[in-house]
Amino acid sequence: MSGKLEGKVGVITGGCSGIGLATARKFAAEGAKVVIGDLDEVNGPRIAAELGGSFIKTNVTDEAEVEALFAHAKATFGSVDVAFNNAGISPPDDDSILKTGIDAWRRVQEVNLTSVYLCCKAALPYMLEQGKGSIINTASFVAIMGAATSQISYTASKGGVLAMTRELGVQFAQKGIRVNSLCPGPVNTPLLQELFATDPERAARRLIHVPMGRFAEPEEIANAVSFLASDESSFITATDFLVDGGLSNAYVTPL
Ligand code: NAD
């Protein structure tokens, strides 16, 4: 590893599984101090200990808990250099607009969109005081493409993440703070595995559209996050950063 995150403190939400976990490992390998905020009290402390970091049980929809997460990072390691606001859900009761009830709609908006608002709001004061910082908000390729296999609240929430991130990137561009959206294509994580285990036809319908003919591995997404977190991406802000195996630019894919 290059040590490109040496001296940085990175807060990662949803760091106990999938993309967040792979990123926590990558950040630590690149020299960062990692603070994980997640609901998973069983695995969180073990993962943090393995990485020489810290875990704090956090529900990202709770303003006080989110504030405590970033305060903990500052108090424990001295700064908040990177915020990877990544926790998200994709529950089966979020489906076609014709089937999705208001409770599922609201739950997904809270976890996927309101959480990003809360995390940015909590991280920014530390970054403004430091005069530097990198925020990476996890959106999704579905925020820029329409899918007939709809998850209406998920898609709308991720569109909100893109718009909010762009605005923050522009607003804070001259304060040394970069704010980017990460738009992964389909990734081989528990979130996706759970969804597809209940509906293999749905998996096949999606896979056919990926030019590379496979889903991403979490480590491939973590590499992109690590780049956006590092000073190597110093002129990149307010982007929809796609890591999607060519999916969003494909018309006819190889057989
Ligand atoms: P995952 O289910 O593997 O991990 C999500 C983590 O978030 C878990 O550790 C879970 O405990 C945590 N979490 C859930 N709700 C929380 C809450 N309220 N407070 C705190 N932590 C909470 O998911 P993943 O596939 O790694 O997805 C991570 C992000 O990437 C999500 O925002 C997801 O929408 C996005 N994404 C995933 C894919 C994919 O194909 N897997 C594609 C595009 C975008």
* Helix coverage percent: 40-55%
Rg estimate, integer Å: 17 Å
State the total count of DSSP E strands: 7
List the uncertain runs.
none
Average of per-residue pLDDT values? 96
Distance between the termini: 36 Å
The ligands found in this model are: nicotinamide-adenine-dinucleotide
Give the amount of beta strand, in percent.
5-15%
Shape: globular
User: What's the arrangement of strands in the largest beta sheet?
Assistant: 3-2-1-4-5-6-7
Described by strand count, sense and barrel closure, the largest sheet is: 7 strands, parallel
The secondary structure category is alpha/beta
Number of helices: 8
Q: In oligomeric terms, what are we looking at?
A: single chain
Query: What is the H/E string?
Result: EHEHEHEHEHEHHHE
Description:
This protein has 255 residues and is an alpha/beta fold. The protein is 44% helix and 15% strand. The protein contains eight helices and seven strands. A seven-stranded parallel sheet has the order 3-2-1-4-5-6-7, with helices on both faces. Helix 3 runs parallel beside helix 4 and helix 4 runs parallel beside helix 5. The site of nicotinamide-adenine-dinucleotide (NAD) has 29 residues, from helix 1 and helix 6.
